[in-house]
Write a structure and sequence with these properties.
With about 100 residues, this protein is of the alpha+beta class. It has one helix and five strands; from the N terminus they run βαββββ. It has a five-stranded mixed β-sheet with strand order 1-5-4-3-2, covered by helices on one side. Bound molecules: zinc ion (ZN). The site of zinc ion has 8 residues, from loops.
Length: about 100
């Protein structure tokens, strides 16, 4: 079991709040993370819900569960199959933040 994968989503954005230029592997990870932000903020759920987003772990066919922690305002995500999990910070006011639309 690996540790919690903590991400500050703004590290992946450029000055115009779009995904910054980055190597393909990093971009793939960034795209995965913003999909989670988009999904978790749209459902705005305090319990884990299935996002239908495929887990990134090699050979894993799980789909990611995500939720909003209303206390810390972090987005928590996890794969129920392989245990890959993490949290996302600083997603507020990014273009993938659906909480105010
Ligand atoms: Zn997995």
């Amino acid at each position: 079991m690996t540790g919690t994968y903590i991400t500050d989503i703004r590290h992946y954005l450029d000055d115009s709040c779009e995904l910054a230029d980055m190597p393909p592997e990093a971009r793939s990870l960034a795209s995965f993370l913003v999909l989670i932000v988009d999904n978790a903020t749209e459902s705005c759920s305090g319990v884990f819900r299935d996002t239908q987003i495929r887990c990134r772990s090699q050979g894993c066919h799980g789909t990611i569960l995500a939720m909003l922690d209303f206390g810390t305002e972090e987005i928590l995500w996890q794969c129920p199959l392989c245990g890959h999990h993490g949290l996302i910070r600083n997603w507020q006011k990014t273009k993938w933040d659906r909480t105010e639309t």
